[in-house]
Amino acid sequence: MHGNLIAGEWVNGTAVPNINPSDTSDVIGDFASGTAQDATDAIAAARAAFDTWQFSAPLERHAILSKTAAELMARRDELGALLAREEGKTRAEATAEVGRAAQIFDFFAGEALRLTGEAGASTRPGIEVAVTREPAGVVGLITPWNFPIAIPAWKIAPALAHGNTVVFKPASLVPASAHALVDIIHRAGAPAGVVNLVMGPGRSVGQTMIEGDLDAISFTGSTGTGAMIAMESAKRQRRFQLEMGGKNPMVVLDDADLDTAVRACLDGAYFSTGQRCTASSRLIVTEGIHDRFVAALRDAIAGLNVGHALNDGTQIGPVVDQSQLDSNLEYIAKGEAEGAAREIGGEVLSRETAGFFQRPALFTGCTNDMTIAREEIFGPVAAVIRVRDYDEALRVANDTPFGLTSGICTASLKHASDFRRKSQAGMVTVNLPTAGVDFHTPFGGRKGSSFGPREQGAYAREFYSTVKTAYINAG
Ligand code: NDP
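# NDP complex -> structure
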C-alpha cells in the first residue's frame, strides 16, 4: 500500500488499485484513497509547518529543491516507465516529462536564491521604501491526470521556493507519479508538514480542500471544477489560480512549408494521445493548400503506430481510461451527425493487451460552430476548418471561448507578426506545434482557459508570494 504523506508520516487508507490503460490486467499497485479527514489533517499540518518554514533560509529551500531535481533526473528512465504505465503516454514522452520535472525543480532551486525586492525613494524626505515578497501561505494544489509529474512539479517547486507549505491532491487516475515525487521531496529533507500528499476523490478530498483553511489554491483541470473553485475562493476571499481547457487553433496558410505544417499538426493534435490542454484541435487551413495538407496529414496519421505505451516504436499510447474513450467516441459520433467528414481514424483498435487504443481521428468539412470545433474533446481528434484567406483564419481562430495556445504555419513574416499580435491566446507559436513549451517562461491563457497569474518561470512568484511595502523613517 502506498500511503498519503501527512505531517511527515505515511498514512494508509482504503486501497485503490492503479490500472495500466495499455493493459487493464496490469495493476501498478495499491494506493491509499484519502478521506475528508485526511485533507483536514493535512491542512492543519501545513499550517503548523508554515510558522517555521516561511522563515526558512533560502539555502535550505535551495538544497531540498536541488536534491529533488537530481534524483528525478537520475531516475528519469525508471519514473518515466512508471508514468507511461499509469497514464499511457509513450515511454519517450513520459521520460521526457520526468526530465522536465527535474529541470523545473532545478530552476526553482535557483529562484529560492533570487528572492529579491526593491528599494526606492519615498515622496517624503528622509523616508525609505522597501518592497519585499512574502509567501502566500498554506497552498492547496489540485492537479489533473494528463501530466502526472510535470504539473505537480510546476506547482510544488515554486510554492516551496517562495516559502509556502503545500497540500497536494493529484488526480485519482495517476497516484503513482504523485507518490514517487512526494517521496523524493520528503527524503530530500522537506520538514514534516511542509509538503503533504492526499490522494483521493475530488468530491471528498478536493472538496474539503476547497472549503478548508487554505490561503491559496492552484488548480489545473476542467472548466467545471475550475469554476467551482473560483466561486468558493471568492466567497472566502482567498487567492486562486486556474488553468483549464483549450480549443487551440493551428492556422495553416497557403505559403506554409507543407512538411513543417504537417509535422506541427501531427504533434500538436495527436501526440500524448491528444490529451494535452495545449493540443491543436482546430486546424484552420486556407484554400490553396487545403487539399494537399489534408492528404499529407491523412497519410501521416495512417502511418502512426498506436499501441502499448511501453512498446518500442509506439508513437501514440492508449486513451487514459474507458470513460475518456467513451467521451471521445461520443464526440466523433456528434461530428458525423453534424455533417463533418471523418477522413480517417476514430475507431477503437485491438492490440495484444486489453487497453483503450484508438486511431487518431481527422475530420474535414468542419465549421467553427460544430460541437467538435467548440468543445474540448481532450482526445486524439482534430477538426479541419477550410477558410478563404488569412483574415478569415484569424477571425475563426479567435472565435472560441478558450484562449490557451494558438499557432500559425506560414512563410510570411507579415502574417506571422500580425497573428502574434492579434491572436487572443496566452501563448502563440509560429511554425511550431501549439503544444510543447519551455519551463522557464510564463505558461497560461486567456478567456475561459485560465484565471489568475501565469505559472512557471519567474512569473510564478506572482501567485506564490505576496508583496509588502514598508516605509522606514531611519532618522
Ligand atoms: P478534473 O477537473 O475532473 O480534475 C482535475 C482535478 O480536480 C483532479 O485532481 C480531480 O480529482 C479534482 N477534482 C474533481 N472534482 C473536484 C471537486 N469537486 N473538488 C475539488 N477537486 C476536484 O479534470 P481532469 O483531471 O479530467 O483533467 C482534464 C481537464 O484538465 C481537461 O479539460 C484539460 O483541458 C484540463 N487541463 C488543463 C491544463 C492547463 O494547464 N490549462 C493542463 C492539463 C489539463 P479526481 O481525479 O479525484 O476526480
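# post-check
The radius of gyration is 23 Å.
The domain at 4-244+449-473 is CATH 3.40.605.10 (Aldehyde Dehydrogenase; Chain A, domain 1).
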